[in-house]
């Protein structure tokens, strides 16, 4: 929400100004519960990240990264992509909701295949959902390479 974005922008600005003036970097947690000052602040973000990281993982990032978060729009440049696109959408994503991802699909001028996964954002980074997503990526890449090889053979 707006309050979260303002908190992040404030922290990002303080970090950038500090570093410009020769000071040390200001860090914030990468993940944290909703309404906390974290780059990804949702109820499932921290537990999800902890499930896919090592025990010595450090949950921090320079706060300046927060200045780019509000500008990130999945699919915004999709219309510039010339290759077929595989868009994989986590149906229960609280970080990038599926509705935002679907809006990005309207930008595509190329062949787009969409697959939905019954999981949250981070769940797709490990376990069964990760395996399913990677398998679909491999299949799509094999199909693309096979098609290109056939085009080259007939040329």
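^ structure tokens above, recovered residues below v
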């Amino acid at each position: 929400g707006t309050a979260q974005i303002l908190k992040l922008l404030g922290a990002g600005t303080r970090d950038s100004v500090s570093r410009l003036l020769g000071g040390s970097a200001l860090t914030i947690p990468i993940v944290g519960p909703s309404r906390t000052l974290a780059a990804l602040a949702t109820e499932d973000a921290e537990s999800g990240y902890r499930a896919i990281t090592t025990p010595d993982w450090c949950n921090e990032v320079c706060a300046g990264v927060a200045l780019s978060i509000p500008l990130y729009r999945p699919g915004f440049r999709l219309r510039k992509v010339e290759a077929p696109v595989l868009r994989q959408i986590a149906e229960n994503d609280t970080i990038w909701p599926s509705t935002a991802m679907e809006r990005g699909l309207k930008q595509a001028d190329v062949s787009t295949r969409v697959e939905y996964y019954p999981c949250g954002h981070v769940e797709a980074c490990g376990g069964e959902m990760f395996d399913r997503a990677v398998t679909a990526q491999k299949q799509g890449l094999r199909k693309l390479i096979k098609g290109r090889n056939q085009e080259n053979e007939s040329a």
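The chain has four helices and six strands.
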